[in-house]
Each structure stands twice: as structure tokens, then as C-alpha cells.
Design brief:
alpha/beta, Rossmann fold, 5-stranded parallel β-sheet, 5 helices, globular
């Protein structure tokens, strides 16, 4: 798989949001690897994808975003990538759990428009 310094691994079980964010990031010059599930994302990472950013939803059926973070941590996948939760789960316990698993930023979907999400990802990438 090819990767560039601006590859975003996008993980969300909502097809509309996955498509919309894929389009927004592509328009902003990013290479996007959309994944409809945690399983798809893990397989892409195990297959050699080396994203600059892993942007994921926390709440998904089956394996959730916490499971994704745990697998990334346990298997040392996505080395050097910025891990960003983009979710509607705003409670402190979820945020703390994500931080304990290594997330760099925890954002609430409903409080950001897509262009703000793209700009936030650019800012996070600059922190590397």
C-alpha cells in the first residue's frame, strides 16, 4: 500500500459521514483510506498502511474505537500517527479511557463542521 505524509485513515460506521469526510479530506489534498469498521482499519494497518492520522469514531457496532486503539497499541500499528477520536460521546469517562489508550485529541462531532475537522487534523499533524 502506498502512503504519504498526509494519509488519513478514516474509520466510521456511518457511510454518509465516511463519504463526506473522505471527500473533504481529499479536496484538502489528503490521501484518504476510508474504513467502515474497526476490523477493516486494523486489516489495512496490518497490511502495511502507514497513515499520518487515524481519525475514528468511538461508538461503532462490534469492535468500537477503544478496541481499535487497544489493537494499535498492542500490535504497535500506525507508528507515529496522530490518533484522533471524532465522536458524539462527550462524557469524561470515555475521554479519559481514550487518553489512557494513547489518543492525541478527542473531538465531539456535533460541535464541529467538516472544514473545522480538516483544519484540526492539519494542526495535529503539525504537532508531530
Amino acid at each position: 500500500m502506498t502512503d504519504t505524509p498526509s494519509t488519513v485513515l478514516l474509520v466510521d460506521d456511518d457511510k454518509f459521514l465516511l463519504d463526506m469526510y473522505s471527500l473533504k479530506f481529499s479536496q484538502a489534498g489528503f490521501t484518504v483510506q476510508p474504513c467502515f469498521s474497526t476490523h477493516e482499519a486494523i486489516e489495512a494497518l496490518r497490511g502495511g498502511l502507514k497513515p499520518a492520522v487515524v481519525l475514528f469514531d468511538v461508538t461503532m457496532p462490534g469492535e468500537d474505537g477503544f478496541s481499535l486503539l487497544q489493537t494499535i497499541k498492542d500490535e504497535k500499528l500506525a507508528a507515529g500517527a496522530r490518533l484522533i477520536a471524532l465522536t458524539n460521546q462527550g462524557n469524561d469517562a470515555d475521554k479519559k479511557h481514550a487518553e489512557d489508550l494513547g489518543v492525541h485529541k478527542y473531538c465531539i462531532k456535533a460541535s464541529m463542521i467538516p472544514s473545522e475537522v480538516v483544519n484540526m487534523v492539519k494542526e495535529e499533524m503539525n504537532k508531530k
